[in-house]
Amino acid sequence: MTAVKEIDHAHRSHALLGASGAHKWLNCTPSARLEEQFPDTTSEYAKEGTLAHEIAELKLRKYFIEPMSSRTYNTRMNKFKRDEHYDDEMDKHTDTYLEYLKELSMSRPNAPFVTIEQRMDYSDYAPGGFGTADCIMIEGDTLFLNDFKYGKGVPVSAENNPQMMLYALGALKKYGILYPIEQVHLAIIQPRLDNISEWVFRREDLVIWGKNLVKPKAALADAGEGEFVPGDHCRFCRAKAQCRAYAGQFTALQDFGAPVKKPALLTDEEIGKVINIGQHLDNWIKAVKEYALSQCLAGNEIPGWKAVEGRGSRNYVDQDKAFAYLTEHGIDENILYDRVPLTVPKVEKLLKKKQYDELLVVPGLVEKTQGKPTLAPAKDKRQAITSATQDFS
């Protein structure tokens, strides 16, 4: 085992060809330099994720790296609990991450080498490339790369995950001489979606991927060259509001093939193309509007649009004082409050999983209704259904 310096998650440095953005610059090589023109803003979701990673690091450090007294641990943990983004769910989900790693460690024949929050340098494949790996274990001939993701948007797969694979290239460079690594085990732990994705592959395949795919793509990306290729990877691109290539896929929805006379109705194949393109339309329009608003507020002109003051809201200066004043003047206090029962998910969050199961699930006091049919991409892991296989009446 080894000790490492604690990471300031909120102020990490980022490489132009960073691992977290690899899905962008590997698919659309000019995007890396294009994004340099835009500020790297931080959302509330990102701040929440940063705090969750800091808590996770503390728990891993205590178990694997740096034995500490309960007093020291609680002092550090209480500091995190005072953060405005903290809630009890964060404690539960980081425990899930820790339990996975504990089980992984104990399942190995020998105690593995463990390191956390280590900077991985993969600049041999991508100029200036580096990133920070959440947790690395090495035992026998296997390199275990584990990534904690706190997001709850969509499940993330470890299979062919470029971010994790770049970390693995960096780990081979750092530890390959010390350990006889022959295979790589990637794991993404995403507790809020109950998603644990694992993938195992050979060291040889990783190196071939790095040399044959990453190196040439990274060279183009570093030079700002190559073709703009819009796709799912555009979702988190800072340039998407102004990117002409990204806009093109939405402003030409009617173009499905060669310019020949076509029937009045779209075919099922064309319908699939419309959905595939249109599913990103809302996010694109939102990004464009946010950019236009920022320009108007900066005093720049967006033809046909202007910034105005939105609709405000009314709030009590002091709710207790206001209600006391109302009751003093004859208003019945009961009509000032709504008594609303908590939903099942809120009760589960309040009681915690074990107590919720004991008091509601086991006695049969809650039921799960059949979900309403919804469209999903063909690669979605859920089983396909038809009217013949399900009763939706």
TrEMBL record:
A Pfam family: DUF2800
Top-level taxon in the UniProt lineage: Bacteria
Biased composition (Polar residues): 384-393
Stored InterPro entries: DUF2800, PDDEXK-like_dom_sf
Annotated segments matching region Disordered: 372-393
Protein name stated in the entry: DUF2800 domain-containing protein
